[in-house]
UniProtKB/TrEMBL annotation:
Keyword match Transport: yes
Gene3D superfamilies (alphabetical): P-loop containing nucleotide triphosphate hydrolases (3.40.50.300)
Name assigned to this protein: Multidrug ABC transporter ATP-binding protein
Domain of life from the UniProt record: Bacteria
PROSITE patterns: ABC_TRANSPORTER_2 (PS50893)
Signal peptide range: none
Domain called ABC transporter: residue spans: 2-227
Keywords: ATP-binding, Nucleotide-binding, Transport
GO molecular function: ATP binding; ATP hydrolysis activity
Organism: Streptomyces aurantiogriseus
Length: 311
């Protein structure tokens, strides 16, 4: 488990991480999301003691990282895949870490096989592609058979087969009861693999929620319905937890809090013919973009400049 309490990091006048409170629980995959510059990498560095908090605290399995006698067995981390001596082979890179922590050679061989590095284990890591470097970084993170695994952008550089592999790896680790904390800019992957989300922007916590709840919050369960009796249909559908919107005079209503099936059944029960009944689908990416819009430091141009328009 990872627990942050009022975790803060300042660099001069800039606050990179601002009083974060969150808990990453075992048995789930927790996605760590945020725009560039949101403070994700700084937070992860503080978790493993590479940066010291300006104030607040963060613990791994109840202790600060540097208080653990065998830290690689508590948390395995991938923060920078290319942090490898380029002249060493993948096998030697892992053996160096194993020797410093009393980890046997057979475990090195296990993680090499687990990450699909058998064919390149004796090759110099400096010649690895980004994808192979990622696999080696993940192998190092798993070396101590840790209770907690923390990976920063683990699918970068992986081909489709590698993406599927890391997806299955993360869910498998969580099913074993481990704590899995992973950052990614690929919302489609987070939607598939994450049970829980921690979202930050400009160093502050924006959401601590599930994928389903976040999508629901931004309209994921809204249904569009059209008929020639919108006022009567509104009356029929109204009830606790149901929100109905629509422009005056329009035959379209937008309903949140009822499924398309429930709306269709109620309309049929009251003899109201429907012209349209469609669920509005909001993706995790759309919900994330809406939530973090005001926390993005650098926005790209949304329109192409045309002659005569001020740049």
């Amino acid at each position: 488990m990872i627990e942050a309490q009022q975790l803060t990091k300042r660099y001069g006048e800039k606050t990179a991480v601002d009083r974060l409170d969150f808990v990453v629980k075992p048995g789930t995959v927790t996605g760590f999301l945020g725009p560039n510059g949101a403070g994700k990498s700084t937070t992860m560095r503080m978790i493993v003691g590479l940066d010291a908090p300006s104030s607040g605290s963060v613990t791994v399995n109840g202790k600060r990282y540097d208080r653990h006698s065998a830290p690689l067995q508590e948390i395995g981390a991938l923060l920078e895949a290319k942090s490898i001596h380029p002249g060493r082979s993948a096998f030697d890179h892992l053996m160096v870490q194993a020797h410093t922590h009393g980890i046997p050679r057979r475990r090195v061989e296990e993680v090499i096989e687990m990450t699909g590095l058998q064919a390149v284990a004796k090759k110099r890591a400096g010649a690895f592609s980004l994808g192979m470097g990622q696999r080696l970084g993940i192998a190092a993170a798993l070396l101590g058979d840790p209770a907690t695994v923390m990976l920063d952008e683990p699918v970068n550089g992986l081909d489709p087969d590698g993406v599927l592999w890391i997806r299955n790896l993360l869910t498998g680790l969580a099913e074993e009861g481990r704590t899995v904390f992973v950052s990614s800019h690929l919302m489609s992957e987070m939607a598939l693999v994450a049970d829980h989300l921690i979202i930050v922007g400009r160093g502050r916590l924006l959401a601590d929620t599930t994928v389903q709840e976040l999508v629901r919050q931004y309209g994921g369960d809204a249904v569009t319905v059209a008929c020639d009796q919108p006022a009567r249909l509104r009356e029929v559908l109204s009830g606790p937890g149901v929100e109905i919107t629509g422009e005056v005079g329009s035959d379209h209503l937008h309903v949140a809090g009822l499924s398309a099936r429930a709306i269709g059944l109620k309309a049929a029960e009251h003899g109201i013919p429907l012209f349209e009944l469609s669920s509005r689908t909001v993706s995790l990416e759309q919900a994330f973009m809406e939530l973090t819009h005001d926390a993005v430091e650098y926005h790209g141009a949304s329109t192409v400049d045309t002659p005569g328009r001020a740049a």
